[in-house]
Backbone:
């Protein structure tokens, strides 16, 4: 039997050292099981051996198993590492490491103990993002495919993008073909699609009430994670500044986006809307981790009388490979700090800003109206 049969095929991350040293291969493990740790260490040993065989220079790489949210102690983890190292060539064994993640207060947020500690700041921050990715519920698994498809079709219309094939919609939403087909069939039966022939599908221009209807459906399919500041001192504008600073520093994923009142005011400066009562954020990371990074004092809203200071919705950035009449749409690396117009409209609808949402929808109707 091939001993690699049950070993994970791909590692979670690869860090290229800026000083030209060999790469660091990383596997993030969230477990209380010693068996899982042994499997991860063995997978890293195979991955590191394969890396050595492909190596084009003399710089030898290292590998690290990063253990997250585990009841296993560092001494126990070190024991498992030594058990594996005893079976390997000493020149190879010393390049396999173990790290245990610890949550820290403040902006640093991530600490690591183990055989590689202390870590350079850039490597620590990069490992922190990998940890957040492992902790997050993963939008492709927890976000409704219909939600993603509604958002995609709305963005397609707002960008005046060319019709999109079902295959492109399937790839962008990570939904199955039957799911995509069912959503398109539903939209077609409601008269929301224009006739595009073999070119693909696209929403027809919507009037203001139809935009509100789309936003209401979108809002119903999302789950906001609400947080409060027990001290009452946090202001949405201050949280937004902190978010942008953390994102610029690479301490937040680049698809972390500001929506709600602040996002709506960005897209529609003339909108008659009061000061933002809270910060609304769309992201693909663990909402609790995001809240902790923005302010370690934020706690989950548990009581009706508690004020909402932060609302986080787990949802991917709708930056798609769409072609417009002017050429290609926005590149995937061009990550705006604000959520899309449609996401902001859905946020405003969800928050109960009826007249402001109607005003936004009317502007979107005019924006997407095509000449007759």
Residues:
């Amino acid at each position: 039997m091939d001993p690699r049969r049950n070993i994970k095929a791909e590692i979670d991350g690869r860090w290229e050292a800026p000083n030209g040293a060999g790469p660091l291969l990383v596997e993030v493990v969230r477990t209380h099981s010693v068996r899982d740790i042994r499997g991860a260490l063995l997978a890293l040993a195979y991955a590191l051996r394969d890396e050595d065989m492909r190596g084009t220079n003399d710089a030898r790489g290292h590998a690290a198993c990063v253990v997250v949210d585990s009841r296993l102690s560092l001494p126990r983890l070190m024991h498992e590492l030594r058990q594996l190292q005893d079976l390997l060539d000493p020149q190879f064994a010393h390049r396999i490491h173990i790290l245990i993640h610890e949550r820290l207060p403040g902006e640093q947020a991530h600490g690591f103990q183990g055989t590689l500690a202390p870590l350079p700041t850039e490597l620590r921050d990069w490992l922190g993002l990998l940890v957040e990715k492992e902790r997050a519920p993963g939008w492709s698994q927890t976000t409704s495919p219909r939600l993603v498809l509604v958002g995609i079709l709305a963005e397609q219309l707002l960008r005046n993008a060319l019709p999109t094939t079902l295959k492109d919609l399937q790839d962008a939403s990570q939904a199955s073909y039957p799911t995509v087909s069912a959503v398109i069939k539903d939209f077609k039966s409601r008269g929301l699609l224009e006739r595009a022939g073999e070119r693909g599908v696209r929403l027809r221009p919507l009037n203001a009430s139809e935009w509100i209807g789309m936003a209401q459906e979108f809002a119903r399919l999302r789950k906001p994670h609400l947080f409060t500041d027990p001290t009452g001192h946090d202001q949405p504008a201050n949280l937004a500044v902190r978010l942008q600073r953390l994102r610029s520093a690479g301490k937040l994923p680049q698809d972390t986006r500001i929506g709600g009142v602040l996002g709506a005011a960005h897209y529609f400066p003339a909108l008659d809307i009061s000061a933002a009562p809270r910060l609304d954020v769309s992201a693909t990371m663990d909402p609790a981790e995001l809240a902790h990074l923005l302010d370690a004092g934020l706690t989950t809203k548990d009581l009706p009388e508690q004020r909402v200071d932060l609302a986080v919705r787990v949802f991917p950035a709708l930056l798609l490979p769409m072609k417009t009449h002017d050429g290609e749409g926005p590149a995937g690396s061009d990550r705006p700090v604000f959520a899309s117009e449609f996401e902001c409209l859905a946020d405003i609808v969800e928050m109960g800003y009826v007249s402001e949402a109607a005003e936004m929808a009317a502007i979107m109707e005019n924006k997407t109206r095509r000449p007759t």
Q: What stands out?
A: Confidence is low (pLDDT under 50) at residues 1-9, 137-141, 319-334.
